[in-house]
Write a structure and sequence with these properties.
The protein is built from 19 helices and 2 strands. It has 443 residues and is mainly α.
Length: 443
């Protein structure tokens, strides 16, 4: 059932926005004196809110269907339970899906998104936020966009804390990516995972790069955010863990003083980090029904079959073997479709057109950077931890979603977690002085 928006909804949204901006301006004015990056705080928030409202209106008045409405309608059922019996509601939130009582199952019998842990977890999150939104779809969209902005903002701070790139370049590059602004602001799992990933990266940076004293709090946040991403979209964690471990390896390697000691300890650290990453990935994959290695072919074929039914934005990468070597051979095609397609001649609607222009900019910048740096690019990557994290996360997630989406619309959503990292990498290499391997100072 589609939400119906009337004058009251827009008036209520206006009141909410006034309160949000009042708090945002107070927060910005408190922080900006010591943190110049807060010059872009209100602008970034505005972009996300416009993205969230635009997403809501486009889906209501243009598409007319989508997961976003199912999450909202299912969340309404839980919200009604909260109003009628708050104790039963909180018991539902805390109960495991497989261990619910008959009474609880009867209470949520009208919930359609209950078959998988990811869907049910998303419905529960949406129901909590729906209470704050007064069961109003437009208000809920605004709240989702604010949550997304918070995660994106701390990810932006993560980049500026550990790099020497000018703040304005990072701000315009990271906070205003069209795909992320639109697809990462609506009532979708992608919005929650994007925000959680930003907070996860920020806290991990504080723990391992900054040696923050409040490590216990940071570890708790890492655990919560990691769990949220694992439940909703475990493949993001599967790509991020090895990428961060490689970045940590680069960071620790650069801290080693003396050529001889570095020569001895570097391979030891490398082997240690590879083992940690391998066992972490194995543990996550084996404990997630959706991402078991043995089911890889079935999953990919299922994605291809389902997304092929979505019509006009379907793409085909040709046949390939569902083996490590077969997937490796198709990796360049997967990477290309994620970051550089759709091409302009593949555009079939306005949304695809914006995505195509974004992809064209990525392609032109990438070609320019390759011509500028050439083969030194890999040397640069393995000498900066943030660049290493960004490169490998973009590579792993970009290839995986490119090989499994088979639909440009779905791909636009699935790729947004790695786009801020990909754009950071482009900005880093674009403004790097090739001769000195340094960047222009912050401003």
């Amino acid at each position: 059932m589609l939400p119906e928006l009337g004058l009251f909804d827009f008036c209520l949204a206006f009141i909410y926005l006034c309160l949000i901006y009042f708090g945002a301006f107070l927060y910005k004015n408190k922080k900006i004196e010591a943190n110049p990056e807060y010059e872009y705080f209100i602008l970034g928030l505005t972009a996300k809110i416009i993205g969230g409202i635009g997403f809501a209106l486009l889906y209501i008045y243009y598409y007319g269907f989508g997961d976003t409405f199912i999450y909202f309608n299912n969340a309404e059922i839980l919200t009604d339970i909260f109003y009628e019996d708050s104790i039963s509601y909180f018991k539902l939130l805390l109960a495991r899906r497989e261990e619910m009582s008959i009474e609880q199952l009867i209470l949520i019998s009208d919930v359609t998104y209950f078959k998988t842990s990811a869907e049910w977890f998303m419905v529960k999150i949406t129901s909590v936020l729906n209470i704050l939104a007064l069961k109003n779809y437009l208000l809920l969209s605004i709240i989702f966009s604010c949550i997304s902005f918070f995660g994106e903002w701390v990810l932006f701070k993560f980049f500026i804390m550990y790099s020497k790139i000018q703040i304005k370049h990072l701000a315009y590059g990271i906070l205003f990516i069209p795909s992320v602004t639109f697809w990462g602001s609506g009532i979708l799992k992608d919005t929650i995972t994007l925000s959680a990933l930003g907070l996860l990266a920020y806290c991990l940076g504080d723990i391992f790069f900054k040696n923050d004293k409040s490590i216990i709090i940071r570890l708790i946040i890492v655990g919560i955010m990691g769990y949220c991403i694992y439940i909703l979209k475990a493949y993001i964690i599967l790509a991020f863990i090895p990428s961060f471990i490689i970045g940590l390896y680069v960071f620790r390697k650069n801290k080693i003083k003396g050529v001889f000691i570095r020569l001895i300890l570097t391979p030891v650290l490398l082997i240690l980090f590879i083992l940690i990453g391998y066992f972490s990935i194995q543990t996550i994959a084996n404990n997630s029904d959706r991402y078991k290695i043995d089911d890889l072919q079935t999953r990919i074929e299922g994605f291809q079959s389902w997304h092929g039914t979505l019509g006009g934005s379907y793409y085909d990468l040709g046949s390939f073997d569902y083996t490590p070597m077969g997937l490796l051979q198709k990796a360049p095609a997967g990477y290309n479709v994620t970051f550089f397609r759709p091409y302009l001649w593949e555009v079939k609607n306005i949304v695809m057109g914006i995505s195509a222009l974004e992809s064209l900019i990525f392609l032109l910048l990438s070609l320019y950077i390759l011509m500028k740096i050439r083969f030194e690019i890999f040397k640069v990557i393995f000498n900066d931890p943030l660049l290493a994290i960004s490169f490998f996360f973009s590579l792993l997630l970009g290839v995986s979603v490119g090989l499994t989406s088979f639909n440009f619309g779905a791909l636009s959503r699935y790729k947004i977690p790695c786009l801020p990292f990909f754009v950071f990498m482009l900005i880093y290499l674009l403004y790097m002085d090739v001769g000195t391997k340094k960047h222009y100072g912050k401003s």
